[in-house]
Protein 1
Amino acid sequence: MSELKIAIIAHPKLADAMREAEVAATYLKNKGLHTAHGSIYNEELRRRVKSGEFDMVVAMGGDGTILRAGHLCAPCNIPILGLNKGRLGFLFQIDDRGWEHTLEQVISGDYWIEKRMMLRAEHFRAGESLGTWQAVNDVVIARGAMMRPIHIKASVDNQYLTTYIADGLIAATPTGSTAYAMAAGGPILPPELRNILLVPIAAHLSVDRALVLSEGATVSITVISENSIMSIDGQTPIGMDENDRVDVRAGENTVQFIRFGELDYFYRNLTAHMNQNSMIGLPR
């Protein structure tokens, strides 16, 4: 496996992750592998990843680093190995044997590739497209600085669904079902599904239940209020005007994660994360 080419990226605000990325890159170079490392925001390294120079990307950080790696790697069909240096890490497999053990498994080819759907969001104003985005987790339409709820009309495949009066509406992938959508009361979906999950945020006198849409559905979200924003995977919000529309459907890209062991790792991870609550196990 000496021909394997690996890029290691880390979040620059996580000093420990940046140090570990350098150590891991040295570790791999000493084994004869073609390796580069740097910040997730390093433009030269990003260019090299996009050019197809590497066979895989190792992302060191938290879930946010993995999401950014997904945006970078999915269009290039490059798989991602996540090494958790953050707090929660729902997108990581839990393994306390250290990154050396994990990288040895990669070098020996002892892994499998998990493919997860992404969302494609397109923003329209007065019939004109203002841009498109790909999301690993979710597309969120929410109220802006003002505290009052907003009115959001939702249609599915050009059929009117409902109008939400809420703080916002989340359109999530199964991957995103363990993120903001879960915090807003939505169900957890297995990662291999290709459904779109709709979850209202703090609905007021309107539909307050989550809805799972079938594969291939397109949901159109129109804001019938001022004071609203759109955020893709928790990134910098984009301002929306009254009557702006966002169309969300399954994206053309697929994010690929490197996984180890049995296929049921997701449920073991889920249980471990849920049990992080410090009150679990205490007598009542």
Protein 2
Amino acid sequence: MTTAWNEAEREPILLQVEEAEIGARLDQFVSNGSELSRSAASRLIEEGSITVDGAPVAKNYRVRAGNTVEIMLPTPAPCEAIPQDLPLDVVYEDDDLIVINKPVGMVVHPAAGNPDGTLVNALLYHCGTSLSGVGGVVRPGIVHRIDKDTSGLLVVAKNDETHLTLSAHLKGHHINRIYTAIAVGNFREDAGTVDAPIGRHPVDRKKMAVIRNADLRSRDAVTHWRVLGRGDADGSAFTLLRCELETGRTHQIRVHMAYTGHPLLGDGVYGGDNTKFEARHRALITGQCLHAGELSFVHPRTQQLMNFSAPMPPDMQRVADLLFGE
């Protein structure tokens, strides 16, 4: 599949059908080749906003060799986050920054499909106008992010000077972020490093992947890991890990662990949700077992080293107890 963008408008998107994709349903083909979900692609096809060789077709149309699929995206509605009175677990706060322990299931900032109910909406209610504007109206104060189904610590800036300083520290690898993870399988070593570049998955555009092809975009990514515990249940082995980020790419720990053959327990995107243990304890495992438990950085104003920690959420702690003992 090859893609062409109109850079001035970011529309239309043109997708060329390649040999390996012949016979795919149009809605799935579009989803694989763009940022659209399959349901969003289906809706645009029904509206006539996606055409094949210039003509509208049904969403179950099977793409053919040489087809050109044109996606005409609608003009996005103006988006601005609004304050919402939502629970916040505030670990630390001063005039310059706030450290939050984010729960599983909360998105960090509004985006397509998640216009509200996010951490940013809660922060706007809690902090009022005292959030930095560097991230724009949708991401005020946001220095770094963690996935919706990952819990744990992140620091938010209350003014532009703090935001710019923390962003520089993050880029320079001077903000220390340590995660606790439960991986499927047993690691042979007690510690190690995954040094493998990460980029957008070449087929499934909603996923990331280790990309070593120089023709495809990727960025250096390094994860240091150490075994904290080993266990087994229902015929499968599991490993409790301490993972320290040297870089901070999207889905980095999830992608790197899957790349080693040990996806995170409960991670349906990267293959960690097919164990008997996960099936038996589905009520506890609502997403990947990954928790940002430790965060440290130098305070931009006071120059003091700030260290924070947060325990695993109760469900993940219960899973760890079942697998690795009390």
Protein 3
Amino acid sequence: MLTRRARIPLAFAALALFWLLAAGWLSAPLLYLAQRDTQSLAPPTYGARTVIVLLGGGTRYDDAHRLVPRADVLPRIATTAAIYSACKQTGARCEVVISGGNPQHHEAAEADNYLPYLLQKQVPRADVVLENRSLTTYENARNVAALLQAERYDALILVTSAYHMPRALLDFHHFGLAPQPVISSARHVQVGVLPRYENLVSANIALHELIGLAQFYVYRSLGWF
């Protein structure tokens, strides 16, 4: 449908955009925008009954075709286990809620898949609650709020990646929850001349989160949230 004269500039523009993303020059500011509000968070405080919410981030099949957590999820599991251990040392009653369904339609939900990894880090099964139905961050917040509605707790802690935390907090606040945010890990971009696949991954993640934030505000203005 385009004339030849328009095709060549568009092709050069597409190549330039690809290079800016893959070399990091555009990926870096996008990722900064997605993670900008998570740079200086205070350490969590614990109450007599503390609930730690671990948010899902997907699963994948490894080389042996075993279903495993995605790379960004492993720090979330490790951070949750460390917070649980610190919580127990205060003498508090501590509980972990793993929230994540099966949006990728794999053989198991995220919560069920993450559970063995958490148990390996000395978190007792009796202190873990599985919320394995939510398919989005919005549903994570909604379903966790429903779980906690009838139970009293003194401290609520939310664990997820830096890029995911701003959107997660918006959704949890929407359902009347005010968790203490704890960042498990942050993504970084390497800016240079050569294209890098990881820079494209970071750009994709950042765009997903920024669009999700914009969607939240649009839906709320329309009264849909």
Protein 4
Amino acid sequence: MTRKTRVGILFGGKSAEHEVSLQSAKSIVDAIDKYKYDVILIGIDKAGQWYLNDASTFLLNADNPKLIALNKSNEGITLVPGADSDKNLMSLSGAGAVGAVDVVFPVLHGPYGEDGAMQGLFKLANIPFVGAGVLGAAVSMDKDVMKRLLKAADIPTPNCVVFEKSDQRNLTFDNIAAKLGFPCFIKPANLGSSVGISKAENENQFKSATAGAFQYDNKIIIEEFIAGREVECSVLGNQDPIASIPGEVITKYSFYSYDAKYIDEKGADLCIPAELPQDITKQVQDLAIKTFKTLCCEGMARVDFFVTKDGKVFVNELNSIPGFTKISMYPKLWEASGIPYTELIDRLIQLALERHEREGTLKTYVDL
């Protein structure tokens, strides 16, 4: 009998998006093909400790996004670079090897999971993993660097200014009003899921928003407001990626906030497919793939757009590990495009294995 592929689902993490990751992991565990894959659950708590979890008990309050929490097990583990393929998960109690993974599916949103740090660990451990590599993850996470690369590639994106916490001399309401106008959006440079993001329409809101964003990052990005529809497009693939049909987010909040995405199931309507002219749909799909390639992504990504009344299309940002919850746009767009959730998970795992095999043919030494 052929042995099942052992998939390590890595979730939780040291990030303000910890609870989102728990929801995403639950959805993947529920949907993954159990006949093809053995699932190994690796939960990371908010302090960064890794645990080997059981599928039946790995979450507390699993059906309540406001109270969902990691149920820490008694088995602390670590991933060991350079270990034998059947011993890459080791117990912290001194008991030795506790299992192994053939491929990792990181469902870690935000810093320490989506920013290249975890991807570097997988590379060192020689373990295939789903999603962007070190470079793609890092540049996609940092909105400042992402914007620079998009502009260099002539990809339309909203204007912005960037400020470090250590240098805020020009971070004044009047200065931003002159450069970008109001309203505007204030965001931590390295975070997602709309955590720490605020829309500011006056000076009091601006001061509060900048202070709030600096709580999450030492660098913030202030972005001009684009009056347009919020459209999203999913991308799938490695060297020859494909784009899904676009969908539109119609939020009931002032913008597509954290609550609208993950807490309030009625906080936004997802219109799939988006009601767009055929030429705009094609432009969105083409720009999604171009953005994916420009940011050196692989495996998966969701690209977010603004589409104005006069037909202008702007790339807002790319998410290299998009949400996988039951109300997330990434899997919903692929389902509407003909790839059901379970098949989507399978394709992503196969893409990870294919990339690892391709990279394994490269020489890592010099013939003397």
